[in-house]
Amino acid sequence: MDSANFNELIAALLSIVPQINETFLRPIEQKSLGNLTPTQVRAIRILESRELLSMTQLSTEMDISKQHMTKIINALVEKGYVERVEDKTNRRLVLIQLTKFGRVQIQKSTQQAVELLRLQFKQISEEDKAALIEATQTIKSIVKKIMPGKGQTRNTEPRVEAKI
């Protein structure tokens, strides 16, 4: 790939991330988990897919300091979304997991997101929907090749049963 094509690729990638965030993610987070900050939402979404994580693992995954992660987790514990549990194999290690309340809130959030996205996707043709599905599958496949092992979670696909 020559440098002009490479620069075009980078520009396209950098421009699509804010568009996806603005169009899909931010409205969903604000509407469904409005009592949480975006960083708190990100933490519980990671915990949803990974089940149990240490503070170190979670702070590494989110690329923030352990001190900041502690503040985030303290707030989520206070709000009832997560809890600290002792590791069964190493009692000195504290793990973080979603509470039942946290899981229920995520399920509600996901359903609200589906309804919001359903309304957005009614505006586009079936051909555009098919193209979007194909494009997202292609992007996921390429990202896996670039970053093997990264993002390998217990549940990489949201549990959604909806026709758009």
Question: Could you characterize what this model shows?
Answer:
The chain has helices spanning 3-32, 38-50, 55-62, 66-79, 100-121, 126-146, and strands at 53-54, 82-86, 94-98. It has 164 residues and is mainly α. The protein folds into two domains: 3-122, Winged helix-like DNA-binding domain superfamily/Winged helix DNA-binding domain (Arc Repressor Mutant, subunit A, Orthogonal Bundle), CATH 1.10.10.10; 124-153. A three-stranded antiparallel sheet has the order 1-3-2. The protein starts with a helix and ends in an 18-residue tail after the last helix. Mean pLDDT is 84; it is low at 151-164.
Taken as a percent bin, the fraction of beta residues is 5-15%
Order of secondary-structure elements:
HHEHHEEHH
Q: Give the % helix.
A: 55-70%
**Name given to the CATH homologous superfamily of the largest domain:** Winged helix-like DNA-binding domain superfamily/Winged helix DNA-binding domain
Lateral strand order in the biggest sheet: 1-3-2
CATH architecture descriptor name of the largest domain? Orthogonal Bundle
Find the CATH topology of the largest domain: Arc Repressor Mutant, subunit A
Instruction: Report the span from N to C terminus.
Output: 37 Å
CATH class assignment of the largest domain = Mainly Alpha
Structural class: mainly alpha
Low-confidence stretches: 151-164
Tell how many strands the DSSP assignment holds. 3
The Rg value, from CA coordinates, equals: 18 Å
The coarse overall form would be globular
Major sheet details: 3 strands, antiparallel
Number of discrete domains: 2
Please, how many helices? 6
Q: How would you state the average pLDDT, rounded? A: 84
